[in-house]
Amino acid sequence: MSAAKPKLAIYWASGCGGCEIAFANLGERLLEATEVVDFVFCPCLLDGKRKDVEALADGEIAITLFDGAIRTDENEDWARLMRRKSGILVALGACAHGGGIPALSNLHTRADHLHNIYFAQAENPERTLPCQTHVVQVPEGTLEMPVFLERVKRLADVVPVDYAIPGCPPETDQIWNALHALIGAGPLPPHGSVLGAGAANVCAECTRKSSDKRVSAFRRVWEFEPDPALCLVEQGVACMGMVTRGGCGGLCPQVQMPCIGCYGPPEGVYDQSAKMVSVLGSVLDIDPIRNLRSKTAINDSVDASLDGLVDIAGLAGKFHLLRGPVGGPSAPRKDQP
Ligand code: SF4
Ligand code: SF4
Questions:
Q1: Cα–Cα distance for residue pair 19/217, rounded to 1 Å
Q2: pLDDT class for 133, splitting at 50, 70, 90?
């Protein structure tokens, strides 16, 4: 009798579903994967229920890919369940890895969100707040509503995480590479590794010609036609390639769009958004202020140069507003290097 294949699961918390689409885009390679793993829970491909996961023994799933941020108590609950049932837990995509776009909501309070969504933007004369009541009675029975948490968390803020695959979404080929690293014949990568990506930044993969960076004004790509051969930053576009982990192949600059940072910080950079602010400061052309003497004149000149940068927090912290190492609070597992 042949040995049982290791089990693989994928779970989708608070995200857009793009990571699952990137996974489903493995296409025929999924059939290849079934020669070495059994898919036991995979909402984008199979009909499975929570009770199916609960019925498994603790640690029975060899690998779980967990995508989406932690926005509700239900997400937290699933994170704990999948952690308990899985030998290896992988944060798949920017939301699980670094909070992603959902974590931008941490710039505001929970009360602000509920007010805006249910009062300011909706016709709601009775001022009903559905997320306030955890248990709701309806004619068909009792419904338990997930609690909308005060803050968005990364997966690693809730449970120990073994690896991360970055990207919004991760490139399908990179998911495949990461799966190979985890289910291939070789030793497991070191605990806490970022898989399916490079160590260097996007600029290292970008084919645009780069030289001295001196920017006197920032603008967005719809305001002019950038030279396709030259570095976007040198043309005044706030491309995040310098502060973003490579691995996508420099996809966005290839098509005249700036990198918006979806692969998160490269090796050695802890806070991607702070690093981007530092990049913006370092490329600013100081010639216009060299001979200015008054503080007000200098501030006005710098403000004018930065005027074209709209929503710095949304620009620099779009995918990794939350920071920290992949492995979160956990120590390396004993069976891993
Ligand atoms: S900053 Fe952007 S456009 Fe410039 S080299 Fe880096 S990735 Fe390419
Ligand atoms: S260029 Fe930047 S934003 Fe675009 S896919 Fe690559 S890492 Fe993501």
A1: 35
A2: confident
- Ligand 1 centroid – CA 107 distance (Å): 28
Listed range (11-15, 97-101, 324-328) with the worst mean pLDDT: 324-328
The full set of domain ranges for the chain reads 7-102+151-183, 116-149, 202-316
Q: Is the pLDDT of residue 211 over 60?
A: yes
Among the bound ligands, name the one nearest to the CA of residue 259: 2
> Ligand 2: does its nearest atom lie under 6 Å from the Cβ of 259?
yes
Query: Which atom of ligand 2 is the closest one to the Cα of 245?
Result: 7
Q: What whole-number distance in Å separates Cα of residue 203 and Cα of residue 97?
A: 22
Give 96: exposed, middle or buried? Use CB within 10 Å, 0-12, 13-18, 19+: buried
Q: At 86, list the tokens.
A: 């899985």
C-beta separation of 167 from 197 below 8 A: yes
Ligand 2 atom nearest to 251, measured from its CA: 1
Could you give the percent of the chain with pLDDT greater than 90? 77
210-237: average pLDDT: 94
- The reported pLDDT for the residue numbered 322 is 75
Residue of 205, 240, 262 to test ligand 2 pocket, by largest number of atoms within 8 Å of CB: 262
Mean pLDDT score, 256-273: 94
Q: Which ligand is nearest to the CA of 237?
A: 1
Question: Which of the following CATH numbers is that of domain 7-102+151-183: 3.30.1330.10, 3.40.50.700, 3.80.10.10, 2.40.260.10?
Answer: 3.40.50.700
* Ligand 1 atom closest to Cα of residue 253: 3
pLDDT at residue 304 tops 80: yes
Which pLDDT band, with edges at 50, 70 and 90, does 333 fall under?
A: very low
Neighbours of 280 (CB within 10 A): 20
Other Cβ atoms less than 10 A from the Cβ of 229: the count is 8
